[in-house]
Task: structure prediction
Amino acid sequence: MITTYGVGALVAIDEKSYVVSGIDSWKVDDSTAIFEPRLQHWLGVQGFRLPPASNPPVGDGVRVRLFPEMYSCPKCHELKKFREFGSPRGKSLCGACEESLSPSRFVVACENGHLDDFPYFAWVHKRTSPVSSETGTRHELTLHSTGRTASLRSVVVRCSCGKKASLEGAFGGGAMQALGISCSGRRPWLGAEGVEVGCTSAPRTLQRGSSAAWFPVNRSALSIPPWSATLQKRVHDHYGVLEPLIAEKVDDALLDKVIEGTGLLQGSLFTRQEIVNAVRQRMELADTEPESEAYGGFEPAERLRREEYEQLMFGTAESERDQDFECVKPEGDRAALPFGIERSMQVKRLREVRALQAFTRVQAPDVMSPGTQPAALALEAQDWLPAVEVSGEGVFLTLDNDLLHSWERRPGTVQRMDRIRREHTRVLRSLARKSSSDRKDEAVDSPITPRYVLLHTLAHILINEWSLGAGYPAASLRERLYVSDDMAGMLIYTATSDSAGSLGGVVAQGEYARLRATLESALNRAAWCSQDPPCMESEASGVNGLNLAACYACVLLPETSCETNNSFLDRGILLGTPEDSSVGFFNQDN
Result:
């Protein structure tokens, strides 16, 4: 519900197809509340809720709506709306043939998130006006598949008026515009009243099961002190009662009575003053200015990440058993740290909250792209978002600042990284020109820096290495990058809802001697790829040409492990290239 089949996604159940309804139709209660003040503040909501998962037949949690509405019968070939087939209640059968109906394979969507049935009638009749109904001519559609080829040329739609057309060319970028078909503005996940009038985006034809039909916009945060402490978690349930009293500076006697009535002091070692201080900390967070909209920023450098970076850098002096965050320095001689690594921290316990903020269609979400248009999760703004909390462990690493600053200024480094920056800037400006936002006339530049590509690629080769050496599947490991002018860190962690997130193997990789061995092994693997020399000599690879030397045989990961869908990678900057060894950060000869 957060990453795969959330609000607005199409799901197939038995012989029917549905779209998941908006969160304003979900049946949720306070028992599913998830506590994470920092992420709540950043996203501008009052809280998070776990998607309901009630058991049938009494379950009425997440609702769905029938979509697409167009169905076809494999026997009589009729193509029309489901309700017109006369199917028995609870079944998907043709009323005349008693054959199982098939939902339309094709839908249309636009980059603003709107979704509608494929316009079969308009496609068959092209720009020709249909015969007036006064003449008695009927327009009943049928769907046929010749089976001669696997292409869309074999899928033919016929009308009873005599016209017919194959679906060849329906997936072209301008196919709908060529027919004069504009976006309907429909949002079927929000019901009939969810139509948005005036959408100027061109609709595109998609396969119903295509990944482009739904991209989640997920935001996440780690629980760090003081919010990971036991006291803050206990105060959270009573914050709405205590906050107005403390804000209004009510009499101490009244405040003491209310605190005692909450039961916070019973069976705990907390004092009355500690509870008041915890509430004031939460009030201070609420008073701070929230982050600007994430779609126009550079997420690895935002304040949410900076707060985590500072906690990961210095760790925790002590940690109670029921706290969610424990970060310590490894035991042993720090001199054993590998070349180029300044700090290693073992994160023995962590908790991550992942929320579904919105979703997109056609164009994958990009936090650095001004053209990405998110779609709403509800007809009217809600004060909560669906989220899930996961626990795990990890290792936090930072790079040697002196070496990093020297490496970033090398001519070879600048020249090589400028290739990625130029390509990314081109992509961003192209999206900005297509965007209807006020930003389309701005000069958009890529925020990607050499240190970002270095940290990103390093995280990928370590995940690949640790998946081999520690026995973890690569898909269960994730990266979290911290990159700015004064940050150069990465967290490699496992945070899953099953036992793969708490086996202890990842934490062990942070030990100095083991880290040295695994990094050396990872760099040796990255020095050569089975696709070389084409891989290393690539001028541009990956989606939109945003990678250099990177392919699935060397550094690419399962997309769930990567923050940017396997973009901005180059193993050439780890040890250098055959033409220029100076671009390699870990090349000790430079």
